[in-house]
Amino acid sequence: MQTVSVYRVAMAHPADVSGVLALLDEEVLKAEDIVAILGKTEGNGCVNDFTRGYATMAFSNALASRLAMSPDEVQQRIAFVMSGGTEGVMSPHATIFARKDVTDAEEVGEKRLAIGVAFTRDFLPEELGRTIMVTETAAAVREAMRQAGIDDPADVHFVQIKTPLLTAERVDDAHRRGQTVATEDTYKSMGYARGASALGVAVALGEIGAGDVSDDDILHDWALSSSVASTSAGIELLGNEIILMGNSAKSISPYLIGHAVMRDAIDAAAVRDALRQVRIRLEDGDVVAEDYERIVNVLAKAEADPTGRVRGRRHIMLDDSDINSTRHARGVVNGVIASIVGDPMIYVSGGAEHQGPAGGGPVAVIAHV
Q1: Known catalytic residue at 162
Q2: Catalytic residue (choose from 162, 225, 253, 325)
Q3: 112-245 topology per CATH
Q4: What is the pTM of this model?
Q5: What pLDDT does residue 104 have?
Q6: Is 232 known to be catalytic?
Q7: pLDDT given for residue 63 in this prediction
Q8: What is the domain partition of the chain in residue ranges?
């Protein structure tokens, strides 16, 4: 059996680790139990967003002394998934996941929140955004399921992945070795890596068959997708880091997780559906005051609809040369969810290629029982 703890802490800047240190100093949390930290940092969320690596460095340095190991060893032990971009009213924060095994524990009578963490090997530049990335990610997702004690893919409700991207240097490295890359556009490489990783989740959970994906399908066949994948790309790593969340009969944690799929960026009905799955009560469409404190966090994906329209109305997110479309989308989806739960400090990641339907994406809620 396992028990899981989840804590959400505000961040005053990308290197602000005071929230997690306070939990450790107050002995609410033990450093050795931390398995993952999921952060929203206030960078641009694009190729040159160094707030992600800055935050990872700050957290790993802070935890190194608590764990009596080097920062590099901390990063091999804990999955640091930092997602850049807190547009609109989204508030920078980190969600800390802790897990420990328990013995002689009685079952609680229902499946509760369980966490699995896994890492792929480092990818070569020519592998990003291609089927080898799908295959390697699928294997790591299965390992995360095993860790979480989840046998039924239907019990998996959110799979957060941090994936690498291509830089000019990495593209040049591939060319020097006589290799090609999925794209030479470093920004587009983020989409390719996110999409291939999401399809790896879909393969692992049986949402699509392993033989259903080819290199040509990635970022082209939008019928192929996962309803629970959430992938984010960054310059600060070379392999995929995976945080799998679901409900398991082998967990006695005091939390539940549920999810739904937003069909577009303003699908508030899906948000309410996910809230109801974890028994959060609503009144006139909003969370009732008594249940507000039960919500640990809301996790969602966002993207600009590739058709250029939302419910028949034209949008210009894809035509704005000043602000990238993923930044627009994050701000919109955060605003929709925040208006329902009454809190802008929620996790919304941009770029939902193969993560739910085109223009939409999964939304999950973690709540205290």
Answers
A1: yes
A2: 162
A3: 60s Ribosomal Protein L30; Chain: A; (3.30.1330)
A4: 0.95
A5: 76
A6: yes
A7: 97
A8: 2-101, 112-245, 254-368
